[in-house]
Amino acid sequence: MVSMLENSKKTSFEKVTIKEIAELAGVSRTTVSRVLSGSDFVNKNTRDRVLEIIEEKEYKPSIIAQSLRTNRTRTIGLVLADIENPFYSRVAKGVIDAAEAKNYNVILCNSNNDINLEERDIRTLTERGVDGFLLTTVELKMKTIENLRDKGFPFMLIDCKLDIPGVNYVVNDDYYGAELATEYLINLGHKKIFFLGNRKLLSLRERFRGFKDTLKRYEINNTGNFVPTKFIKTGGIYDIEGIIRYLLSRQENITAIFAGNDYLAVKSIEAINNNGLKVPEDISVIGYDNIKISSMIKVPLTTIRQPKYLLGKLAAEQLLEILENKSDKKARRVILRPELVTRQSCRRIGIQKLEERRC
Amino acid sequence: MVSMLENSKKTSFEKVTIKEIAELAGVSRTTVSRVLSGSDFVNKNTRDRVLEIIEEKEYKPSIIAQSLRTNRTRTIGLVLADIENPFYSRVAKGVIDAAEAKNYNVILCNSNNDINLEERDIRTLTERGVDGFLLTTVELKMKTIENLRDKGFPFMLIDCKLDIPGVNYVVNDDYYGAELATEYLINLGHKKIFFLGNRKLLSLRERFRGFKDTLKRYEINNTGNFVPTKFIKTGGIYDIEGIIRYLLSRQENITAIFAGNDYLAVKSIEAINNNGLKVPEDISVIGYDNIKISSMIKVPLTTIRQPKYLLGKLAAEQLLEILENKSDKKARRVILRPELVTRQSCRRIGIQKLEERRC
DNA sequence: TAATTTATTGGAATCGATAACAATAAATAT
DNA sequence: ATATTTATTGTTATCGATTCCAATAAATTA
Asked: Which nucleotide is nearest to A69 (CA to C1')?
């Protein structure tokens, strides 16, 4: 009764500490701590009494104080290249779910595809005392990563295959995915295929490699896949309209575009339409990522599906394993396989070119 | 030189503490702390010496220790209803940007539109010691909010207009937005309009109010806007296909659907198409939110645009102001105005009904 | 009965910072 | 020359937990 009265008087946010619990239970803080940490050697009666008071007072140990003492925060950092990009937000969901399942929290940074912000975010996170972090980097500096590794700070890369010792990652097999896409186009009869994408970005570099190698394997000569720099705006953003106009004007009879990601694909289709041509009738377009909108646009997009949720989930799980088990130095590298999703943005081209059908 | 040698020997992650800095500089920890906290009363020579050593040792104060002592973590929590929903991820970006601008970090929780997870998240965040948090709640329990308020824990609601004393929010004016949408449809000649959306959700409730009131204002009788429960799956998810089939079968000559959000609108259009009808020829559909895909789908969606980034940014800024300035108890309620975005999913219906054109 | 284990508990140091208060030396006023 | 201010710095307690080590009481063994 008295305690209820006291409670109702309490207006501002006051915290119960372990000291109070100890006093109320007539034991030492040590004992309360023991009760808290599960089972050590505490007498059953004592334990019950302490637990009762803990419950009554709704005592929760201060995570901050615990962190200071134990040097673990049960927090991991997540550096997202772009939270608004559905690819990354799905990855983030996987990360958050995996973290929460193990009673960890996630501090989120958004690097905005900016390598400088990315480094700032990494610094912020380490200073803030996260136990480890996950990095979805898009154009990473080798030095930064090596530095992190050498400091012994636990981290994993997401969707960034960097094969240097002591660096772990969970990635989609971009090379294989690009093979899938390219083979698909080739089987539809395409030979003049343009690869659209910023090859500075790690995953796009892999996709481009897969593309090139596949063409070679089929003995198809393909030249000039370079986007003139004048179409690349600050921050590596492409002027898709400009690129498409340029491609069409080159009169090279390009029959297909392999867009490095679905965003580029969607924009390309728009641009192609704006130039009076149609997809897939005049030009086939294949994307990469299978983001949600790719099935919803005017011409549902043929693309490569990547396990995104899994990417985040596995990465987080691997990181947490490392954290729970600091000694083990074994390499943790997971490579996930993408799949082809055929929709309607690519069509077969054959010996006789079908006449354009107009509605 | 010696120190460099030492550094290169250091393999694991070792932290420099204020104590070491103090010893190296030949001053007390207090003095170092003073230097750190900007300008107190420290002799310029001393300060310079300390700063030099801080720089040399790359010393960063432990945020955990600071937090414990000062009872401030420079961390805010963000409970997102669904990080994968582009609406919320844009909001999140606004929040993160505003927080980082003031040197705060964001701990992200994803409540998955689940009210139980939401409460768990709130608990997690308060226990973790965030300074305050932002809540994008979708179906909140009044009790939870009142409880938080009574405990004096700083928080703000995002896009959830809850007018009880001591509760602050930044919201879009859903009522007004719904007025805009409804008026637009009415001006196009629609009278039989169906409102599609879960009216348990706060913002949808507001939209429905705006919808109803506008119809009344135009003296239009509208009945039966209730979705039969059999089409509502667990978690409040709608079986849109079922609903649309049901609507069409009712033979009530519905000419327009006001979808409570763009997702519902997009799905509705798909469902309508699947039933052999066309948008907007047979049925007009207006959405709400103006998410990215709404302009990219087959029939670009007419919808209501909401300032999403601003929503998050302002909410975070308000919260931080509260945190920096604990004494001020003034109400912080911001109401943002949405706008109509006309695209192609609605058409005028007139006296003579145009014959269906087929391609 | 004395000696040794075992079970249970508490004291005090510690994690890395901040802050109230005290202390000293130098500068100024009387 | 003495008293009082001012500038600068240090001492120590504290935030809220954990943990090493010691202490006590009870139980067991010799």
From this structure: C15
